[in-house]
Amino acid sequence: MKRIHIKSRKKLFIIVPAVVAVVAGLSVGAVFAYSRSRSLVHDDLNTVEAGVQIIDNSDPGFGRKEISFYNNDESNANILLRIAYSEMWTKSDGTVISNVVSDGNGGYTNVVTKNWTSDFNNHFRDGGDGWYYYDHILAPLQTVQVLSSISLNNSSYSLYNYDISFRFEAIQADANATDSLWGKTVTVGQDGSVTWPF
Q1: Is residue 88 part of a domain?
Q2: Domain count, the chain
C-alpha cells in the first residue's frame, strides 16, 4: 500500500514496508493517496503472484499526481489489468464529510478535480462493479499511466484531509482465467486488444 500525505511540513515517512507516506506542504489540510494490489497468474493448477506494481511520480500537495501501473519483469506473462479508486474527506477528528458541494446551479461538483490521462479516459472500461478494465494487455515491462494531477476546487476544504486510494488486480491474459477469477467473459485479440462485455 502506498500513501501520499500532504500537510504543512515536508517529511518522508515509511510506515511499514508495504506502506509509504510522503508528507508535504498544503496549509493545514492533508491529502493521502495510497494503493492496494493483488496480481494473479492462473495456470489451471495454481494461482501465483504476477510482478505488477503501482508507480507514483507525484509532487507534494495538490498538483502533479502521476499514477501508473507497470508489468515489472521481462519474464512476466502478458496480463489483464483492472483498477479501482475511492476518495474521502475527513475532519481532523475523523468525521467523514461529503466529496461533493453545490455548484451554484442546482447541481453538485466534486471538491477535487482528477485529471485522468487519455489512456484512462479512452482505454479503461467501467465494469459497473467498481472496477475499470484496461482494454489492452499489459505486456512485460510495459506501463500505463492513469492519473496526471489533482486540484482542489473549494478553498473551504483546505483545512480537511483528503484520501484517494487506488487498487488494482492483474491476471494472466487468458479468457479462462478471467472467467474463473473475475467472472468476466473477455476476448483477447492477436494485436493485444481486449474486448470486455460492457
Answers
A1: yes
A2: 1
